[in-house]
Amino acid sequence: MARGAVAVAMALSVGAYAFTVPSMADVTAQRQAAEQAQEEQAVQTASAEATEVALTERRAAVVQVADSVAARAQVAKETASAAALTAEVVAPLDEAVAELGELLELARAESAASPVSAPEPAATGPAAPLPQSAPSPTEGAAEPAPEPLPSDAPAATPTPSASPSETTIVATEVPATVAGVDVPQGPEDATTARLREAVEKVAQASAQVVLVAEANSAAVEVAAGVQAAAAAESERAAAEAARVAAERAATRAAWRTSLDKYSNGQVPESALCDVAFDPSHELRCDAAQQLEQLDAAYVDAFGVHITISDSYRSLAGQYACTRTKGSLCAAPGTSNHGLGTAVDLGGGIQTFGTRQHRWLVANADEYGWTLPDWARATGSKPEAWHWEYVG
Protein backbone atom coordinates (compact mmCIF):
# COMPACT_ATOMS: atom_id res chain seq x y z
CA MET A 1 0.00 0.00 0.00
CA ALA A 2 2.83 2.33 0.91
CA ARG A 3 4.66 1.49 -2.32
CA GLY A 4 1.58 2.32 -4.28
CA ALA A 5 1.33 5.69 -2.66
CA VAL A 6 4.97 6.43 -3.50
CA ALA A 7 4.47 5.47 -7.10
CA VAL A 8 1.45 7.70 -7.39
CA ALA A 9 3.42 10.62 -5.93
CA MET A 10 6.32 10.13 -8.34
CA ALA A 11 3.96 10.00 -11.24
CA LEU A 12 2.33 13.22 -10.16
CA SER A 13 5.74 14.87 -9.71
CA VAL A 14 6.94 13.91 -13.17
CA GLY A 15 3.68 15.05 -14.60
CA ALA A 16 4.03 18.45 -12.94
CA TYR A 17 7.57 18.80 -14.30
CA ALA A 18 6.51 18.19 -17.80
CA PHE A 19 3.72 20.70 -17.44
CA THR A 20 5.94 23.71 -16.36
CA VAL A 21 9.02 23.32 -18.62
CA PRO A 22 8.85 25.82 -21.60
CA SER A 23 9.21 24.68 -25.11
CA MET A 24 12.33 25.29 -27.22
CA ALA A 25 10.49 28.06 -29.14
CA ASP A 26 9.73 29.89 -25.92
CA VAL A 27 13.33 29.64 -24.78
CA THR A 28 14.64 30.95 -28.11
CA ALA A 29 12.19 33.85 -28.13
CA GLN A 30 13.13 34.90 -24.62
CA ARG A 31 16.84 34.74 -25.45
CA GLN A 32 16.39 36.83 -28.59
CA ALA A 33 14.34 39.45 -26.69
CA ALA A 34 17.07 39.79 -24.09
CA GLU A 35 19.77 40.14 -26.73
CA GLN A 36 17.72 42.74 -28.65
CA ALA A 37 17.19 44.76 -25.46
CA GLN A 38 20.93 44.73 -24.81
CA GLU A 39 21.66 45.88 -28.38
CA GLU A 40 19.13 48.70 -28.14
CA GLN A 41 20.66 49.81 -24.85
CA ALA A 42 24.12 49.80 -26.43
CA VAL A 43 22.84 51.90 -29.35
CA GLN A 44 21.26 54.40 -26.94
CA THR A 45 24.44 54.63 -24.92
CA ALA A 46 26.58 55.18 -28.03
CA SER A 47 24.17 57.83 -29.29
CA ALA A 48 24.25 59.64 -25.96
CA GLU A 49 28.04 59.54 -25.92
CA ALA A 50 28.23 60.88 -29.51
CA THR A 51 25.86 63.69 -28.55
CA GLU A 52 28.04 64.58 -25.57
CA VAL A 53 31.12 64.67 -27.78
CA ALA A 54 29.32 66.90 -30.29
CA LEU A 55 28.17 69.24 -27.50
CA THR A 56 31.69 69.48 -26.15
CA GLU A 57 33.27 70.10 -29.57
CA ARG A 58 30.67 72.77 -30.36
CA ARG A 59 31.25 74.52 -27.05
CA ALA A 60 35.05 74.37 -27.40
CA ALA A 61 34.83 75.93 -30.86
CA VAL A 62 32.49 78.70 -29.64
CA VAL A 63 34.82 79.40 -26.67
CA GLN A 64 37.76 79.72 -29.06
CA VAL A 65 35.83 82.18 -31.23
CA ALA A 66 34.78 84.06 -28.08
CA ASP A 67 38.43 84.51 -27.06
CA SER A 68 39.25 85.85 -30.52
CA VAL A 69 36.26 88.22 -30.51
CA ALA A 70 37.20 89.45 -27.02
CA ALA A 71 40.67 90.31 -28.34
CA ARG A 72 39.10 92.18 -31.27
CA ALA A 73 36.90 94.05 -28.82
CA GLN A 74 40.00 95.24 -26.95
CA VAL A 75 41.46 96.53 -30.22
CA ALA A 76 38.14 98.28 -30.93
CA LYS A 77 38.31 99.97 -27.51
CA GLU A 78 41.85 101.18 -28.20
CA THR A 79 40.69 102.50 -31.57
CA ALA A 80 37.82 104.30 -29.85
CA SER A 81 40.21 105.85 -27.36
CA ALA A 82 42.51 107.05 -30.12
CA ALA A 83 39.54 108.58 -31.93
CA ALA A 84 38.36 110.23 -28.68
CA LEU A 85 34.91 108.63 -28.83
CA THR A 86 32.56 109.43 -25.97
CA ALA A 87 31.76 106.92 -23.22
CA GLU A 88 28.19 106.87 -24.46
CA VAL A 89 29.29 105.50 -27.84
CA VAL A 90 31.52 102.80 -26.28
CA ALA A 91 29.05 101.79 -23.51
CA PRO A 92 27.22 99.07 -25.55
CA LEU A 93 30.57 97.41 -26.29
CA ASP A 94 31.62 97.56 -22.63
CA GLU A 95 28.36 95.93 -21.56
CA ALA A 96 28.61 93.21 -24.22
CA VAL A 97 32.23 92.43 -23.28
CA ALA A 98 31.32 92.15 -19.59
CA GLU A 99 28.53 89.70 -20.39
CA LEU A 100 30.83 87.70 -22.65
CA GLY A 101 33.44 87.46 -19.90
CA GLU A 102 30.91 86.05 -17.44
CA LEU A 103 29.66 83.47 -19.92
CA LEU A 104 33.21 82.41 -20.82
CA GLU A 105 33.94 81.73 -17.14
CA LEU A 106 30.70 79.76 -16.81
CA ALA A 107 31.40 77.69 -19.94
CA ARG A 108 34.92 76.82 -18.80
CA ALA A 109 33.72 75.92 -15.32
CA GLU A 110 31.03 73.59 -16.69
CA SER A 111 33.49 71.98 -19.10
CA ALA A 112 35.96 71.36 -16.27
CA ALA A 113 33.22 69.85 -14.08
CA SER A 114 32.04 67.32 -16.69
CA PRO A 115 34.86 66.39 -19.10
CA VAL A 116 34.14 63.89 -21.84
CA SER A 117 35.65 60.47 -21.03
CA ALA A 118 35.79 57.06 -22.66
CA PRO A 119 32.41 55.40 -22.63
CA GLU A 120 31.67 52.97 -19.81
CA PRO A 121 30.03 49.63 -20.57
CA ALA A 122 26.31 49.90 -20.42
CA ALA A 123 24.83 48.90 -17.11
CA THR A 124 22.34 46.24 -17.90
CA GLY A 125 21.73 44.65 -14.51
CA PRO A 126 21.79 40.92 -13.87
CA ALA A 127 20.58 38.95 -16.84
CA ALA A 128 17.49 36.92 -16.26
CA PRO A 129 18.24 33.20 -16.37
CA LEU A 130 17.49 31.71 -19.70
CA PRO A 131 15.56 28.42 -19.58
CA GLN A 132 17.43 25.27 -20.55
CA SER A 133 16.21 22.71 -22.99
CA ALA A 134 14.15 19.93 -21.49
CA PRO A 135 16.45 17.02 -20.61
CA SER A 136 16.05 13.66 -22.27
CA PRO A 137 15.39 11.32 -19.36
CA THR A 138 17.44 8.19 -19.36
CA GLU A 139 15.32 5.17 -19.77
CA GLY A 140 14.43 3.67 -16.46
CA ALA A 141 15.72 6.66 -14.38
CA ALA A 142 14.46 10.18 -13.64
CA GLU A 143 17.21 12.87 -13.93
CA PRO A 144 17.00 16.02 -11.79
CA ALA A 145 15.20 18.68 -13.78
CA PRO A 146 16.61 22.26 -14.11
CA GLU A 147 14.77 24.80 -12.11
CA PRO A 148 11.86 25.81 -14.25
CA LEU A 149 11.17 29.38 -15.28
CA PRO A 150 7.68 30.27 -14.20
CA SER A 151 5.45 30.28 -17.18
CA ASP A 152 4.17 33.74 -16.34
CA ALA A 153 7.64 35.37 -15.77
CA PRO A 154 8.39 38.34 -18.13
CA ALA A 155 11.33 38.25 -20.50
CA ALA A 156 14.52 39.73 -19.05
CA THR A 157 15.03 43.39 -20.02
CA PRO A 158 18.32 45.27 -19.44
CA THR A 159 18.30 48.18 -17.03
CA PRO A 160 18.78 51.42 -19.06
CA SER A 161 22.16 52.99 -18.47
CA ALA A 162 22.53 56.60 -17.40
CA SER A 163 23.20 59.15 -20.16
CA PRO A 164 26.89 60.19 -20.43
CA SER A 165 25.77 63.73 -19.79
CA GLU A 166 22.85 65.25 -18.01
CA THR A 167 23.21 68.41 -20.17
CA THR A 168 19.95 69.62 -21.66
CA ILE A 169 20.06 70.23 -25.39
CA VAL A 170 18.29 73.49 -26.21
CA ALA A 171 19.07 73.74 -29.94
CA THR A 172 19.91 71.38 -32.74
CA GLU A 173 19.40 73.78 -35.66
CA VAL A 174 22.40 76.05 -35.09
CA PRO A 175 24.40 78.35 -37.40
CA ALA A 176 27.54 76.97 -39.00
CA THR A 177 29.44 80.19 -38.30
CA VAL A 178 29.88 82.34 -35.21
CA ALA A 179 31.04 85.92 -35.73
CA GLY A 180 32.03 84.95 -39.26
CA VAL A 181 34.12 81.93 -38.17
CA ASP A 182 33.23 78.35 -39.15
CA VAL A 183 32.49 76.10 -36.18
CA PRO A 184 31.52 72.41 -36.01
CA GLN A 185 27.86 71.73 -36.59
CA GLY A 186 26.14 70.08 -33.67
CA PRO A 187 23.69 70.52 -30.84
CA GLU A 188 24.05 73.25 -28.24
CA ASP A 189 23.29 73.37 -24.56
CA ALA A 190 21.94 76.48 -22.84
CA THR A 191 25.36 77.88 -21.87
CA THR A 192 26.82 77.43 -25.36
CA ALA A 193 23.76 79.05 -26.95
CA ARG A 194 24.02 82.07 -24.64
CA LEU A 195 27.77 82.27 -25.24
CA ARG A 196 27.27 82.22 -29.01
CA GLU A 197 24.72 85.02 -28.79
CA ALA A 198 27.07 87.07 -26.58
CA VAL A 199 29.90 86.55 -29.07
CA GLU A 200 27.73 87.88 -31.89
CA LYS A 201 26.72 90.87 -29.78
CA VAL A 202 30.36 91.73 -28.98
CA ALA A 203 31.37 91.30 -32.62
CA GLN A 204 28.60 93.65 -33.77
CA ALA A 205 29.33 96.21 -31.04
CA SER A 206 33.05 96.12 -31.89
CA ALA A 207 32.32 96.66 -35.57
CA GLN A 208 30.04 99.58 -34.74
CA VAL A 209 32.64 101.23 -32.51
CA VAL A 210 35.35 100.80 -35.15
CA LEU A 211 32.99 102.20 -37.80
CA VAL A 212 32.25 105.30 -35.71
CA ALA A 213 35.94 105.70 -34.81
CA GLU A 214 36.98 105.46 -38.45
CA ALA A 215 34.28 107.95 -39.43
CA ASN A 216 35.47 110.34 -36.72
CA SER A 217 39.08 109.88 -37.79
CA ALA A 218 38.11 110.50 -41.40
CA ALA A 219 36.22 113.62 -40.36
CA VAL A 220 39.21 114.79 -38.34
CA GLU A 221 41.47 114.17 -41.32
CA VAL A 222 39.10 116.04 -43.60
CA ALA A 223 38.88 118.90 -41.12
CA ALA A 224 42.65 118.92 -40.78
CA GLY A 225 42.96 118.93 -44.56
CA VAL A 226 40.48 121.78 -44.84
CA GLN A 227 42.28 123.68 -42.10
CA ALA A 228 45.64 123.07 -43.75
CA ALA A 229 44.24 124.17 -47.11
CA ALA A 230 42.73 127.25 -45.50
CA ALA A 231 46.02 128.02 -43.79
CA ALA A 232 47.88 127.54 -47.06
CA GLU A 233 45.38 129.77 -48.85
CA SER A 234 45.65 132.35 -46.11
CA GLU A 235 49.43 132.29 -46.39
CA ARG A 236 49.17 132.54 -50.16
CA ALA A 237 46.72 135.43 -49.88
CA ALA A 238 48.92 137.13 -47.30
CA ALA A 239 51.95 136.64 -49.50
CA GLU A 240 50.04 138.00 -52.48
CA ALA A 241 48.80 140.96 -50.47
CA ALA A 242 52.31 141.60 -49.25
CA ARG A 243 53.57 141.39 -52.81
CA VAL A 244 50.93 143.80 -54.07
CA ALA A 245 51.53 146.13 -51.15
CA ALA A 246 55.26 146.03 -51.81
CA GLU A 247 54.67 146.74 -55.47
CA ARG A 248 52.38 149.62 -54.63
CA ALA A 249 54.84 150.96 -52.11
CA ALA A 250 57.59 150.71 -54.66
CA THR A 251 55.39 152.37 -57.23
CA ARG A 252 54.44 155.17 -54.84
CA ALA A 253 58.07 155.60 -53.91
CA ALA A 254 58.92 155.85 -57.57
CA TRP A 255 56.05 158.27 -58.11
CA ARG A 256 57.16 160.32 -55.11
CA THR A 257 60.51 160.97 -56.70
CA SER A 258 59.29 160.88 -60.29
CA LEU A 259 58.89 164.64 -60.40
CA ASP A 260 62.04 165.55 -58.53
CA LYS A 261 63.84 166.29 -61.77
CA TYR A 262 61.25 168.88 -62.68
CA SER A 263 61.09 172.42 -61.40
CA ASN A 264 58.02 173.63 -59.54
CA GLY A 265 55.25 174.35 -62.04
CA GLN A 266 57.16 172.88 -64.96
CA VAL A 267 56.05 169.20 -64.78
CA PRO A 268 55.00 167.83 -68.18
CA GLU A 269 51.47 166.52 -68.45
CA SER A 270 52.82 163.06 -69.32
CA ALA A 271 54.41 162.82 -65.88
CA LEU A 272 51.12 163.48 -64.08
CA CYS A 273 48.06 161.26 -63.52
CA ASP A 274 44.41 162.13 -63.99
CA VAL A 275 42.14 161.92 -60.94
CA ALA A 276 39.77 159.08 -61.82
CA PHE A 277 36.58 160.61 -60.39
CA ASP A 278 37.38 163.99 -61.98
CA PRO A 279 39.74 163.58 -64.98
CA SER A 280 39.89 167.34 -65.55
CA HIS A 281 42.38 167.49 -62.70
CA GLU A 282 45.92 166.10 -62.54
CA LEU A 283 48.27 165.31 -59.67
CA ARG A 284 51.44 163.43 -58.98
CA CYS A 285 50.41 159.81 -59.54
CA ASP A 286 50.68 158.62 -55.92
CA ALA A 287 48.74 161.67 -54.70
CA ALA A 288 46.04 161.07 -57.32
CA GLN A 289 45.70 157.42 -56.33
CA GLN A 290 45.33 158.14 -52.63
CA LEU A 291 42.86 160.96 -53.32
CA GLU A 292 40.76 158.44 -55.24
CA GLN A 293 40.67 156.10 -52.23
CA LEU A 294 39.80 158.99 -49.91
CA ASP A 295 36.99 159.93 -52.30
CA ALA A 296 35.57 156.36 -52.20
CA ALA A 297 35.24 156.63 -48.41
CA TYR A 298 33.74 160.09 -48.80
CA VAL A 299 31.11 158.74 -51.21
CA ASP A 300 30.18 156.07 -48.65
CA ALA A 301 29.68 158.79 -46.06
CA PHE A 302 27.92 161.47 -48.17
CA GLY A 303 26.81 159.82 -51.40
CA VAL A 304 28.69 162.31 -53.63
CA HIS A 305 32.26 162.72 -54.82
CA ILE A 306 34.69 165.24 -53.43
CA THR A 307 34.54 168.52 -55.31
CA ILE A 308 37.94 169.62 -56.65
CA SER A 309 38.35 173.31 -57.54
CA ASP A 310 42.11 173.29 -58.23
CA SER A 311 44.95 170.72 -58.43
CA TYR A 312 48.28 170.87 -60.34
CA ARG A 313 49.11 174.42 -61.13
CA SER A 314 51.73 175.29 -63.73
CA LEU A 315 54.16 178.12 -63.20
CA ALA A 316 52.12 180.27 -65.56
CA GLY A 317 49.03 179.39 -63.60
CA GLN A 318 50.74 180.40 -60.37
CA TYR A 319 51.50 183.80 -61.80
CA ALA A 320 47.92 184.17 -62.94
CA CYS A 321 46.67 183.18 -59.47
CA THR A 322 48.86 185.82 -57.87
CA ARG A 323 47.54 188.48 -60.21
CA THR A 324 43.90 187.59 -59.56
CA LYS A 325 43.91 186.49 -55.92
CA GLY A 326 46.90 188.23 -54.52
CA SER A 327 48.13 186.94 -51.18
CA LEU A 328 45.78 183.97 -51.26
CA CYS A 329 48.19 182.37 -53.69
CA ALA A 330 51.75 181.38 -52.86
CA ALA A 331 54.62 183.10 -54.56
CA PRO A 332 55.08 181.61 -58.05
CA GLY A 333 57.50 178.65 -58.00
CA THR A 334 56.88 177.83 -54.31
CA SER A 335 53.34 176.40 -54.26
CA ASN A 336 52.73 172.67 -53.66
CA HIS A 337 50.25 172.96 -56.47
CA GLY A 338 53.27 173.32 -58.75
CA LEU A 339 54.54 169.91 -57.50
CA GLY A 340 51.19 168.15 -58.12
CA THR A 341 50.66 167.42 -54.40
CA ALA A 342 48.01 169.97 -53.41
CA VAL A 343 44.30 170.45 -54.11
CA ASP A 344 41.69 173.05 -53.30
CA LEU A 345 38.34 171.49 -52.43
CA GLY A 346 34.72 172.66 -52.38
CA GLY A 347 31.32 171.10 -51.88
CA GLY A 348 31.21 172.18 -48.24
CA ILE A 349 34.79 171.16 -47.42
CA GLN A 350 35.98 174.73 -48.07
CA THR A 351 34.23 175.97 -44.91
CA PHE A 352 35.41 175.27 -41.38
CA GLY A 353 32.86 173.50 -39.14
CA THR A 354 30.75 171.85 -41.82
CA ARG A 355 30.03 168.13 -41.65
CA GLN A 356 32.09 167.61 -44.80
CA HIS A 357 35.07 169.52 -43.41
CA ARG A 358 34.94 167.80 -40.04
CA TRP A 359 34.77 164.38 -41.73
CA LEU A 360 37.79 165.14 -43.91
CA VAL A 361 39.81 166.38 -40.95
CA ALA A 362 39.02 163.11 -39.15
CA ASN A 363 39.73 160.77 -42.08
CA ALA A 364 42.10 162.34 -44.62
CA ASP A 365 45.30 161.44 -42.75
CA GLU A 366 44.51 157.73 -43.25
CA TYR A 367 45.01 158.27 -46.97
CA GLY A 368 48.08 160.51 -46.75
CA TRP A 369 46.22 163.81 -47.17
CA THR A 370 46.19 166.53 -44.56
CA LEU A 371 45.21 170.11 -43.84
CA PRO A 372 48.52 171.89 -43.13
CA ASP A 373 48.85 173.54 -39.74
CA TRP A 374 49.18 176.98 -41.28
CA ALA A 375 45.88 176.42 -43.16
CA ARG A 376 43.84 175.32 -40.13
CA ALA A 377 41.37 177.60 -38.41
CA THR A 378 44.04 178.48 -35.83
CA GLY A 379 46.86 178.67 -38.37
CA SER A 380 48.75 181.66 -39.72
CA LYS A 381 46.79 181.65 -42.98
CA PRO A 382 43.51 179.75 -42.56
CA GLU A 383 42.46 178.04 -45.76
CA ALA A 384 39.86 175.33 -45.12
CA TRP A 385 39.94 174.33 -48.77
CA HIS A 386 43.69 173.75 -49.17
CA TRP A 387 44.79 170.12 -48.68
CA GLU A 388 48.22 168.64 -49.31
CA TYR A 389 49.48 165.12 -49.91
CA VAL A 390 52.25 164.10 -47.52
CA GLY A 391 52.26 160.36 -48.30
Q: What are the SSEs and their pairings?
A:
Elements: H1 2-20, H2 24-82, H3 87-113, E1 169-171, E2 177-178, E3 181-182, E4 188-189, H4 190-258, E5 273-275, E6 278-283, H5 285-302, E7 307-310, H6 315-325, E8 342-346, H7 355-363, E9 369-370, E10 386-389
Antiparallel strand pairs: 1-4, 2-3, 5-6, 7-8, 8-10, 9-10
In short:
This protein is an alpha+beta fold. The chain is built from seven helices and ten strands. The model is unreliable at 1-18 and 117-165 (pLDDT under 50).
Explain what the structure shows.
This protein has 391 residues and is α+β, with helices and mostly antiparallel strands. Among the domains are: 151 residues; 121 residues, Muramoyl-pentapeptide Carboxypeptidase, domain 2, CATH 3.30.1380. 54% of the residues lie in helices and 8% in strands. It contains 7 helices and 10 strands. The strands form 4 sheets. It has a 4-stranded antiparallel sheet. A hairpin with a 2-residue loop joins strand 5 and strand 6. Helix 2 packs antiparallel against helix 3, helix 2 packs parallel to helix 4 and helix 3 runs antiparallel to helix 4. The relative contact order is 0.09.
